[in-house]
Amino acid sequence: MSQLSSFFTIPPSQRDHVPAARIALSVAVPLLVLLAVGRTDLAIYAVFGSFAALYGRNEPVRARIRHQAQAGLLVVLCVVVGALMSNAGLPEPAVLAVTAVIAGLGALVAAYLTLKPAGSLFFIFAAGAVGTLPAAAPAWQAGCIAAVSAALSVGWGIVFRYVGEGVRGPVASVPAHHGLTAAQLWAHAGRFFLAAGAAAVLGSLSGLSHSYWAMVAAAAPIAAPDLTARMQRAVHRVIGTLGGVGVTAFLLSLQLQSWHIVVFVIILQFLAELFVGRNYAVALLFVTPLALLMTELASPGQASSLLQARAVETVIGAACGLAVVYVFRSREERIADTRAVPLIRQATGMLPRVPERETAQDTPQHAPQDPARTED
């Protein structure tokens, strides 16, 4: 599939409405409770806690519940760290530095626990967003709200086992920490740390707000399984985000009240989950306004600067992520790139075409992919 056609291709649904409904409910219940008691300023902590519902989507029920509980604990810890940084009044460079460390350690722990989505994107988002709030809730309060929301998400996962969600039939076992060596785990973590750190520096130099968005965008492509998929993920991230900024601009032009934003967040979460496994760019048309509306609830500000920051920081972050995955390619990926050059020249007529039989004999089998880097 070409890069261009991938933007217009949406594979058939695989009962995506079922996990989408579960995840939307995980977001909806705590948000509606906070809306009822007039505390929508606390909604951001509840939404981060509900991120636990995103994990283990295509896994057997028991594995999904275990991974959701583990991911929920990690997200809650990130929320607490973020709240502590905000409460202490740490300057933004310090917050971003801590978030970069979380990017690396979160990716390492996620790989060790075989969490899917892989990587540390959601951990970066939670720590960076809460840490840069001008006045976050007390750490204990933010942590409790996130923990209750995460627990509800795991509970919905148990309930939905009775409506047929989950993998059916025999499932291949996954070795502990994907069978990776300690060196491979730390190298995997290092890619996330370097990409997030570089994105934080360049994002800060841009002079715009919300530099942690650049860190989130930098982490997105690294989690894909191979170089081609990572490049595609980065391009989709940029194109989908820019489209999502347009959607957000329209929504914010409606002069939304708090209850409007809550309703939109729930709807957008459902729509995002319908498409995230089928077309990443389309999913980001909904993920982007979801993230921006969450930010608006927690800390209302000027819409134009918010939209500009989201667009520019995403481009910066995607470029950093691509640079890291290209420079730190595996040996197998470098060999594949070298062998691809003659094939490209043949396709463009620069070299005579090699007979198909000879090409098949000369081409080695693909090296196994690193399962730690499955798609988000």
Automatic annotation (TrEMBL):
<keyword id="KW-0472">Membrane</keyword>
<keyword id="KW-1133">Transmembrane helix</keyword>
<feature type="transmembrane region" description="Helical">
    <location>
        <begin position="69"/>
        <end position="88"/>
    </location>
</feature>
<feature type="transmembrane region" description="Helical">
    <location>
        <begin position="185"/>
        <end position="205"/>
    </location>
</feature>
<feature type="transmembrane region" description="Helical">
    <location>
        <begin position="20"/>
        <end position="48"/>
    </location>
</feature>
<feature type="transmembrane region" description="Helical">
    <location>
        <begin position="121"/>
        <end position="139"/>
    </location>
</feature>
<feature type="transmembrane region" description="Helical">
    <location>
        <begin position="94"/>
        <end position="114"/>
    </location>
</feature>
<feature type="region of interest" description="Disordered">
    <location>
        <begin position="354"/>
        <end position="376"/>
    </location>
</feature>
<feature type="transmembrane region" description="Helical">
    <location>
        <begin position="281"/>
        <end position="299"/>
    </location>
</feature>
<keyword id="KW-0812">Transmembrane</keyword>
<protein>
    <submittedName>
        <fullName>FUSC family protein</fullName>
    </submittedName>
</protein>
<feature type="transmembrane region" description="Helical">
    <location>
        <begin position="311"/>
        <end position="329"/>
    </location>
</feature>
<feature type="transmembrane region" description="Helical">
    <location>
        <begin position="258"/>
        <end position="276"/>
    </location>
</feature>
<feature type="transmembrane region" description="Helical">
    <location>
        <begin position="234"/>
        <end position="252"/>
    </location>
</feature>
<dbReference type="Pfam" id="PF13515">
    <property type="entry name" value="FUSC_2"/>
</dbReference>
<dbReference type="GO" id="GO:0016020">
    <property type="term" value="C:membrane"/>
</dbReference>
<feature type="domain" description="Integral membrane bound transporter">
    <location>
        <begin position="199"/>
        <end position="324"/>
    </location>
</feature>
<dbReference type="InterPro" id="IPR049453">
    <property type="entry name" value="Memb_transporter_dom"/>
</dbReference>
